[in-house]
Each structure stands twice: as C-alpha cells, then as structure tokens.
C-alpha cells in the first residue's frame, strides 16, 4: 500500500493503466508523423526492388500446371511470363499478376505435361527476375472428393491407429514382468520419444527451409516447440493441483501424456504422408504401409509402459480408456493426412512439427522421474540400456520405411 | 520402378519442395470463385494432344509489348536501312556520314518483362548502317550512356579506327567515356554483311545489353532487286545469371508470330541475318516449307549452299535469298528448339491473308488463350 502510494506520488498521481498507455500513444503518434512525412532523412532505397517469391503449392491436372505463389519480399512483384522446361507457356493468374507484400496468387499454366517426367516451371517477373519451381515427378493431383478423403483416412488408420493399437497389446506383458522392469520400460519410452523429437525437429527444419521467410521459416519450428512445451506444462500443473486431492499422479496420467505427445508427432507424420501422396512422390506400396506399421507399433509399447503402475491408483484401465489412448496417439495421423493432402502449407507444417517436438520434450520431462533408481539417479545401467534400446528400436524400424 | 527411390527423408523433402493441394484450387475454379473469369473458361484447341488444352506451341501470355515506349518496332526495323548522309569529297569520292548516340534505355523484351538495355540510337538492334563498297565512311559516335562504350566495326580499317579500348587513347580513340565522342573514319570494305558492336570490357555484358547492329556494304555492282530485310538474332539475360531468359529475332520474342512478316509470292526475298547472341555458343535459322541460297558473310556473289537450315556462331552472319512459291503462313525459327520456344520464332505471311487457309491455321496455331493477339497481323 505504501509503495503504491509512493509510486503514484512520483508520477504525478496517474493511475497505473494510464502509465502503461502513454508510451503506446506516443509510439503511435511518432509512427504516424514519420509515415505522414514519408520517412524524413531516408532515401527510397539504395538498390533495385527486392523480389522474393516462394512457391506454396503445385497442382497438376491434364494440360495444366497450377502454382500458388506467395510474395515474401519487401516489394510488390509482378508476374510477367511463365516458361515450363524452357518453353514459354500461356497462363492466367486468379489473384492477379501483381502480388503485394505477403500476398499470393495462383497461376494456371497451360502445358501438356506428361506423367512421370520432371519439370521446371520458371516464373519471369516484370524486372526480368526468375523464380523456379521444381516438379520432380509429374503426376495428376488427386481430386479432393469423398473417395480421396476416405483414402487418406484409411492411410492414416493404417500407419497411425492400427500400429499404435497393436503396440498396446504389450500391456499384459508389461503388467506381468517383474517390478524391476518398469524402470527399463520407462527408459525405453524416453529413448523412443527422444528419437521422435529429433526426427520431427529435423523434418520441421527441412520443410521450413522452403517456407516463406516472411512467416518465420525455421523460427516457426522453435516457436511451436516452445509454445507446446509451455502449454503442456501449464496443463500439467493444473491437472496435478486437482489430482493432488485424489492422490498422486497415476500411471494412467503418464500414459495419457505419452499418447498426446505421440499423437502430435503422428499429426506431422500424417501431414508429410498426405502431401507426398498428393504430389505423387509417394507410392502406396504394401511394403511402405507395413514399414510404417512396424515402426509405429513401438509407439504403442511406449504408451502402455507407464500402465505397469507404481503407486497404483487406477488399477486397471478399462478397454474403452485404452482405446481412447490409442486413438489419441494414432488418429492425428488421419487428420494430418487430410491437411497435408488438401492444403499443405510449409509454414503450417513447420509449426506443427515444432509443436510435436515441444510436446514430446514435455512428456520426456514428465516421464523421466520414473527412470530413477533407488539412489535417485537418472543415468544408471538399466536406464541407459533402456533408452538406447528405445532409440535403436525406432532407428531399425525406420529403416523399413526408407525403401 | 526401381528408379523411383523413396525414403522417409526424401518423402518429406518432396513434400517440402512440391507442396500440393489436392483440392483447394479445383474447388475454387470448379465453383467459379476464381477472380479471373478466364480461369473457368478452359478452351480447347481442337487438336494436338488430347486433354492438353491451349498449348499448341510456346507463346507468351497476355498483351504484346509496348512498342511506342520501346521507341522502335520490330516490324519497322526489319526493312529500315540507314544510309546516313552523303557528300562528295574534293577527290571525287563519296563520303557517307552518320551520328550514333549510345543511350541507356529500359526496353520491353517480352510482354511485361522490362530490361535495362544499353542502346545505339535508342533501339536494339542499333541502326542498320548501309554503304557501298569503296565509299569513305565517317561515324560520329557520342556516348550519352552512364558507362564507357565504343563502336567496333567488322571490316578492314586502321587500328585507330577499331573501337578498341587501349588503342589510340591519346588521339581520343579507344574507350569513349560518358559524355565524350569520337569519329570513326574508314573505307567501306570488303563488301558483304558485317556488324558493329561495343568492345568495352566486360565484353559479353556490353554486347548482351544491346550494343550491336548490322553493317551492310553493298558490292559496287549491287545485288539483284529484292524485298530486303534485316534479322538480328539476339537474346536477353534478364536476371543476369549468364544465360538468356528470352530469345528473339530483332529483340522482341515471338514478335513475328504476332505480326507475321508480309512478303509477296514469287518475289525474291533477301534476308540479312546476323547472330549476336551472347552466352550461347550457337544460334541457327530454319525456314519451313522452303529452301534458300546461302551467302556466308555475303562476301561472294555466288551462293555456297542451297539449304533450309544454317548454324551461326557469335558474330557470324549470312545473306539468304529465297522465293515463296505458295501463299500461306510459313514459320521460321532457330532450329535450336529451346531458343525457338523461348521466343525466337516467327512467321512469313505470303499473299493476301484473307484468302488463305493458312491464316486460319496460324490463328489456331498461335492462339494466345488469354488476351493475346496471336495470329492476327
């Protein structure tokens, strides 16, 4: 009370909210005057306009190639001509040929492209600059009808839901093994999650490299990770406060967190699969689906590992609860496949991959205490062996996917 | 199938480089929401590849270039021969004089594509200077550009008149700095088709910017009466990556597709063909449905070959003579197909186009689907 009174006296008795607003008002006034005067003392620019365009989407239909371009440079860009494989081709621009800063347009180029061939689409701007879009393997972009979304859902279920569900069948094994195994299993889960986090982070950065720099690019991956971590931490504190009344945090709670982390990771994975399928970069061979299935089965094991129970409040989760965990971890693959195939956006994808990384990191922090041995150490022979086994399991099964 | 490698990494890489939307756009165009109404108006060209609408051959999208802003018109400069002014010298010889001014100028080389050119007399190619064998020539060169330039003529002359930086600098020759001028003076020899261009380093850049033109020395006896025209094969490296984005005959890509060169049936046509293309070692010329007599460098009155395709290196030139025995539209282009599809393509129109079945074919062939005026002269 006394400190507040003192502060008010020092600032002439203005309330705190006014003190907060005054600098904002001053900033607005200065910016307005500066803009009205046209930036006094500053030249327009020292060089020619900077033209930066990024290709956000490529859609192929018989006889046409559609490119969605975004201007992520500081100046407007006017698209003048388009050449496909060193031949000028007629085109129309649905969003106009002039693209303002951060604006976008879709070019519809007439060109008799041939299935399976590679193309380079060169956009020539009014200043003579060029932006190239590669089409490594031309294939018709699937029409977004019900069949297509059905196929994407099936794909998501094949690579996400079913394998995770199968992996959860290890639950009886997890329950039956001796108490000493619990530490090893939790370490296995941590190793597995760490591998996923690194994998997702690298994938996110790779995609971000092709995203418009104006939207943040690689920063989006880190932002997504940080925000996801903080949000999960807040949720965790909130839930803990409520569950403190009921008892200690349960194995089921940990399993839920693991399922959530893996689910966010599978969202990114579905995104990649969906967009790759839509661009024809992915052949849906049985081998690939089997590879993903085996790979993701290990994720199911990670979910049920905490259900071994230590301080056992929830003795036996019901079948419905188990199914819920499986869906939480696997179903985002379906959602990801839909987004990836229908409206792939590199910036969004980078952000989502980052979210996956942050979520997994938080889950690891959450699980880590259960790896402690009797002396309270994290790193001991059993936990180290378990983590390495988890990393190795994902690495080896990942080879199945790398055809 | 084995070459279709797929890895998880590659899969994601592909997803990143070619992000696709299966349906986003088809939804938009299908529901007629596209801002450009032409989007929902895919026309068929009634031929060629089935299912491949609107691409009969390579062409530009949209309007033609603004010739008025350019200050020159490829159809007009085709038959624009600059004979300069003449007067008798005391010796009785004819003195032929020109004034050529180097100027920096933005020109439109393809619809909507601007290029910061360096020009002789504000046009690219520069004026076609024409003289007769044995005359005395005096070319007053004024450099109004922001960069140093010269005029280097192909022909036979003393070193001082060669337009070479470093040679004759003390006498005011050599490199001509901005604001300076110099008069090149030499005899017109040998007869033939030659060229002139800037020779300031970096050479490729100075030539590629547009500082070149044809230089014709007629033989004393002259050549047979003919419909004569100049075609300078050039290109433009609009993004300065040392390769050309636009190729052309007389600067504007696809110009003679939009406005075919009109000639009369059975009349002798003489083409003065010069290759000044930079960054590509070879250029070529091919005529459809006809053959021509080929006079390399035009230094002999006897043709060396009867053919329909010739190849020229940088700085090479030829005189071509032919007659068109049939009415109709006849394509000519670089037989380097890449150049042809990047702008170096045109048509000859023989006879009255309204009487021709060929005109309709051209209209279909050269259709610029969205707002172009292809095929209409």
Question: How would you describe what is shown here?
Answer:
The complex is a heterodimer of chains A (403) and B (377). Chain A is an alpha+beta fold and 403 residues long. Chain A has 3 domains: 2-36, no CATH class; 53-135, Sandwich (Immunoglobulin-like); 146-401, no CATH class. Chain A has helices at 2-10, 16-36, 146-167, 171-176, 181-208, 218-246, 251-278, 286-304, 319-330, 332-343, 346-367, 381-401; strands spanning 53-61, 64-71, 77-84, 88-89, 91-93, 98-99, 104-110, 119-125, 130-135. In chain A, strands 3, 4, 6, 8 and 9 form a 5-stranded antiparallel β-sheet that branches. In chain A, strand 8 (119-125) and strand 9 form a beta hairpin. In chain A, helix 7 packs antiparallel against helix 11 (346-367). The model of chain A has no long low-confidence stretch (mean pLDDT 82). Chain B is 13% helix and 34% strand. Chain B is mainly beta and 377 residues long. Chain B contains 8 helices and 21 strands. The chains are: A alpha+beta (403), B mainly beta (377). Chains A and B meet through strand 1, strand 2, strand 3, strand 4 and strand 5 of A and helix 1, helix 2 and strand 4 of B.
Which structural traits does this protein have?
heterodimer, A: 403 residues, alpha+beta, 12 helices, B: 377 residues, mainly beta, Immunoglobulin-like, five-stranded mixed beta sheet, 34% strand
List the helices and strands and how they pair.
The complex is a heterodimer of chains A (403) and B (377).
Chain A: H1 2-10, H2 16-36, E1 53-61, E2 64-71, E3 77-84, E4 88-89, E5 91-93, E6 98-99, E7 104-110, E8 119-125, E9 130-135, H3 146-167, H4 171-176, H5 181-208, H6 218-246, H7 251-278, H8 286-304, H9 319-330, H10 332-343, H11 346-367, H12 381-401
Antiparallel strand pairs in A: 1-2, 2-7, 3-4, 3-6, 3-8, 5-7, 8-9
Helix pairs in contact in A: 3-8, 3-9, 3-10, 5-6, 5-7, 5-8, 5-11, 5-12, 6-11, 7-8, 7-9, 7-10, 7-11, 8-12
Chain B: H1 8-17, H2 24-30, H3 67-70, H4 74-77, E1 81-82, E2 85-88, E3 94-110, E4 113-120, E5 128-132, E6 136-143, E7 152-153, E8 181-187, E9 192-197, H5 203-208, E10 212-218, E11 227-236, E12 246-249, H6 255-258, E13 261-263, E14 269-275, E15 282-287, E16 292-296, E17 305-307, E18 309-313, E19 317-322, E20 328-333, H7 337-341, E21 345-350, H8 357-365
Parallel strand pairs in B: 1-5, 3-6, 5-10, 11-14, 13-21
Antiparallel strand pairs in B: 2-3, 3-4, 6-8, 7-9, 9-10, 11-12, 14-19, 15-18, 15-20, 16-17, 16-19, 20-21
